[in-house]
Specification:
The protein is built from 16 helices and 14 strands. By secondary structure, it is of the alpha+beta class.
Length: 406
């Protein structure tokens, strides 16, 4: 132990750290050893530095709100932590329960239990089973721990007249303030790397990158792919990604996704949804039949666009097929090739412009523009953000310059 501490201290000094900073780092590594191992041994930490450092890196994420959709990604994410340390564990102290788990309903937290990080995956699995009726997983928890947590969930649901449903959410809070300790661990982790081959830590670095960039807060959006880019002739077409990991009725898109798909800012998308959104998941069962019925009924009675939303306590998800239908309806291709050959196959948002830019390209005023705009190719995801196909406008400009109208 003394050699490791001394070697670490000398390494820190070579990194131009002050004496007080070195003392703080040494003191914090000592504290981690005391909290983790019964013999307070630096050698033990040296053997397990990466899983310990990874755990403290995860604590820096502070908290998560999980719903029926994102808990599936969270379970996969937390399961990976048990896979990064396959060595026989040293004699450890009893784990401190320092993670707060609550049920989240109607913008309120209902406390369930405090748990330790090692068992967080198991407790989330129990919640996934009880709240969302998903299959049970294999647990490391003993029977008494499972029953205690199941009883806590049942008590909260009963006392507050809350029914298990896909709308409910889970709130996880890491109670530890770990900033200074994590920095000390990062220094010790870098120190350890100096004694190993350059490529020995490549997999570890990828894992740490995933903690920062692919944790449950970072895997909410982006679960779609572009099947066909927008062109003058064809609308944008998207595909739901990982739909089987989400809802069986293909709800994968978030509001942030819609800003990327429609190429509109968040406020404009909010206005669009205020007009077109309809939520219909207020029963425990919500399947393909419910979705189609709701969509068709709203269309029949309102004669307007409808975007069906699946609401949870923390966000709304949208159906990719429904959005594709909206994209098709609001893409208006007018084949003006009879006046001159126009390339309507150019793909991408860069080939579209707003009305102001269209007027500049054409070199005409608003009155003349509106007199002919019904003959233009355009997209109108909202009535006030209409965009026009630039290659067509440029050809029409040439016709106008020659005094030749449509």
């Amino acid at each position: 132990m003394a050699d490791l501490r001394k070697d670490f201290e000398e390494w820190l000094r070579k990194q131009n750290n002050s004496s007080s900073t070195i003392e703080q780092y040494i003191r914090r590594i000592d504290k981690i050893c005391r909290e983790t191992y019964q013999n307070c041994n630096w050698n033990n930490l040296n053997e397990e530095i990466f899983p310990v450092f990874a755990q403290y890196t995860e604590y820096a994420n502070k908290e998560y709100y999980l719903d029926f959709v994102t808990i599936r990604y969270a379970l996969d994410y937390f399961k990976t932590f048990s896979q990064i340390n396959n060595k026989p564990s040293f004699q450890k102290n009893k784990k401190i329960a320092d993670i707060k788990i609550s049920l989240y309903h109607n913008k309120s937290n209902y406390f369930l239990n405090t748990v330790n990080f090692e068992n967080l995956y198991d407790y989330l699995g129990i919640l996934n089973s009880i709240l969302y009726k998903q299959p049970n997983q294999q647990y490391k928890l003993d029977y008494s721990q499972r029953k205690e947590f199941e009883n806590a969930i049942a008590s909260v649901l009963d006392k507050n007249a809350i029914k298990p449903s896909r709308k409910l959410a889970i709130h996880i809070v890491y109670k530890k303030s770990v900033s200074a300790t994590r920095i000390a661990l990062s220094k010790y982790y870098l120190f350890q790397q100096t004694t190993q081959p350059a490529n020995a830590y490549a997999i570890n670095e990828l894992f740490l990158e995933n903690i920062r960039k692919k944790n449950p807060n970072k895997t909410v959006n982006g679960h779609y792919t572009i099947e066909k880019q927008i062109s003058g002739k064809n609308p944008l077409v998207i595909n739901a990604a990982n739909e089987r990991d989400r809802l069986d009725i293909n709800f994968t898109l978030t509001k942030q996704d819609l800003t990327q798909i429609f190429k509109l800012n968040k406020d404009t998308v909010s206005k669009l949804l205020d007009k077109a959104k309809f939520s219909n998941n207020h029963t425990s069962k919500y399947d393909e039949e419910d979705y189609i019925l709701a969509k068709n009924l709203v269309k029949y009675y309102t004669h307007q666009d409808v975007i069906i939303g699946f609401d949870t306590e923390i966000r709304t998800y949208y159906n990719a097929d429904n959005i594709n239908e909206y994209l098709r309806k609001h893409h208006h291709h007018h084949n003006n090739s009879h006046i001159q050959t126009i390339n309507y196959t150019k793909e991408g948002d860069r080939h579209w412009c707003n009305r102001k830019k269209a007027l500049e390209i054409l070199g005409i005023g608003k009155t003349a523009f509106y007199a002919h705009s019904y003959k233009f190719t355009y997209i109108d995801y909202t009535s006030y953000t209409t965009k026009y196909y630039i290659p067509e406008l440029k050809i029409i400009k040439k016709r106008l310059s020659s005094k030749i109208m449509f």
